[in-house]
Write a structure and sequence with these properties.
Its EC number is 2.3.1.35, 2.3.1.1. The chain has 2 domains: about 260 residues, L-amino peptidase D-ALA esterase/amidase (4-Layer Sandwich); about 120 residues, Ubiquitin-like (UB roll) (Roll), CATH 3.10.20. The chain is about 30% helix and about 25% strand. The protein is of the alpha+beta class.
Length: about 400
């Protein structure tokens, strides 16, 4: 099946009948902090949530109701509404009841991000709702409204054409810290008009998630609020492989934006692991490399300390052999199946590669056919500063 994927503007609003915007409700001194996505019609929805045992109230609200369709998402930043017990869910119910007096909503969803362990300021949110222009189509305002420590908004959209007709797909995400996905990570909202069967939505979302959001890490911490939503109007064409590829490109772009925007990060690095006994073992190694503090600090210092990479591989409890292992910084091989290739010239070349904002580190275990690519960033002084002062 031949198809063409073309970048377009609009983010989640690239899909006809989808509206979005953001306002300042007073959680931030300036800028947007409360936003919405709404639709003229009910949307079929699929979602993935954090595997953190202490799921936030907005996630519990959706799961308790078994929501499968919706026409409205309300999202706030600066407060996660997590670890707030039954009261946190009651706060959502009160807010959505107030929202229902302003506009017709069906199975509304609320999504939150920010500080854990604090009740929502319902009055601020209600006053923010009063400011909404429900007919505005401004995906960028919504993207800014869900930002916490993010330094830039994250959004993307494509139009896909083929023998099946055409469809559009757009996405918005936030995330920079507390990023170590165990399903998805951060908050992500994807809209499309693809006529995808309901029974395929969850399956494809989960499959694509494994190689995108589940392949990144900033700091090794899994949030209480991690959520990714996929919603469709079903007004466009559909072909499974075309949709899967377009969804992958949307999620891949947003996931890599999160890595690039990692709190205090100066490097975005792909760890390409091949030759593992299985894909599962390759993924274990890749994830361990993205979360190793010693590897991350070496990245920040632009130090091609390949021994830290080798040590992390060996500590991953996967099948490996130092006489089969190969490590390279881009095309500069530093260790090759028992042979140390790390003279002064090689180190200089590897160091030059590590000065780049983005680069790849290749790890070939030489055992089997398993492969997986993980995406991570360095650990800088600013990460400590940002998180030491997170509530202040």
């Amino acid at each position: 099946m031949k198809f063409r994927i073309t970048p377009i503007d609009g983010g989640v609003c690239a899909v006809d009948g989808i509206y979005a915007s953001g306002v300042n409700a007073g959680f931030k001194q300036d800028g947007y902090d409360l936003g919405f996505i709404r639709s003229d019609k009910e949307l079929d929805v699929a979602y993935l949530f954090t595997t953190n045992k202490f799921q936030a109230a907005p996630i519990k609200y959706v799961l308790n109701r078994g929501i499968k369709t919706t026409n409205f998402i309300l999202a706030n930043s600066k407060n996660a509404n997590a670890m707030t017990g039954d009261e946190g869910i009651k706060d959502i119910e009160e807010i959505l009841e107030f929202l229902s007096q302003k506009i017709s909503i069906k199975n509304p969803i609320m999504s939150s991000t920010g500080v854990i362990g604090v009740r929502l300021d319902k009055e601020k949110i209600k006053k923010g709702i009063e400011k909404f222009d429900f007919n505005e189509k401004n995906s960028n305002k919504f993207a800014k409204a869900i930002m916490t420590t993010d330094s830039f908004e994250k959004e993307i959209a494509f139009e896909v054409e083929g023998d099946f007709g055409k469809f559009r797909i757009g996405g918005v995400a936030k995330g920079a810290g507390m990023i170590n996905p165990a399903m998805a990570t951060m908050l992500c909202f994807i809209t499309t008009d693809a006529n995808i069967p309901q029974n395929e939505m969850q399956e494809i979302l989960k499959e694509v998630n494994e190689v995108t959001f589940n392949a990144i890490s900033v700091d090794g911490d899994t949030s209480t609020n991690d959520s990714v939503f996929l919603m469709t109007t079903r007004d466009g064409g559909y072909e499974r492989e075309a949709f899967k590829e377009a969804l992958k490109q949307v999620m891949q772009k947003l996931a890599l934006d999160i890595v690039k925007d990692g709190e205090g990060a100066t490097k975005a690095v792909a760890f390409v692991v091949t030759g593992a006994k299985s894909k599962e073992e390759a993924k274990i190694v890749a994830k361990n490399l993205t979360t190793s503090l010693l590897v991350k600090t070496a990245l920040f210092g632009e130090d091609p300390n390949w021994g830290r990479i080798a040590s992390t591989v060996g500590a991953s409890n996967v099948e490996c052999d130092e006489k089969r292992l190969k490590i390279a910084f881009e095309n500069i091989v530093v260790y090759d199946r028992g042979n140390i290739i790390f003279d002064e010239e090689t180190e200089r070349k590897a160091h030059e590669i590590m000065k780049r904002r983005e680069f790849k580190i290749y790890v070939d275990l030489g055992i089997g056919e398993g492969a997986f690519t993980g995406y991570g960033c360095d650990l800088s002084y600013d990460y400590v500063k940002i998180n030491a002062e997170y509530r202040t």
